[in-house]
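Entry 14. Structure prediction run on the chain below.
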Amino acid sequence: MESSPVNGDWHIYPSFTDAARLWDTVLADGPFISECGARCMPSPETWEKLLSEESFRAVPGDTVYAPEKMARLHPEISHFCMEYPEEMFRRGEKFNRIREIPLAELSEAVNLAAAEFNRIAIEVCRCAWPQNGGLLLWAWKRP
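Output returned:
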């Protein structure tokens, strides 16, 4: 099967904390997946350009799991993080102690988790050839 949407086209964003669970999803059954991915965060360099020094050096801590608290304690960061799902941060916890680190390191941990998620998604689809005709990764991040 060629990589085209002729025989079907899926947009799928599995949502859970353990990327290894991708093997247990319908991901491999899709004839062609034109959008798949995990949410991630801006790079530390982007944060540094957008935020004040104080916000860039901030340690968001538990506020990543409490949007209202983040809005109160870190309003500048909150503006960008309100839509991030909890599972994105949970995946990041595998790579660093995200409640104890500054925003730059938090971004790196979350983005490593997104990369792991994408790597496993690719493996699942490759193993499903010829049922699965491929996938295109989509990185959802703000800004």
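Strands lie at 10-12, 33-36, 135-137.
Filed with the rest of this week's runs.
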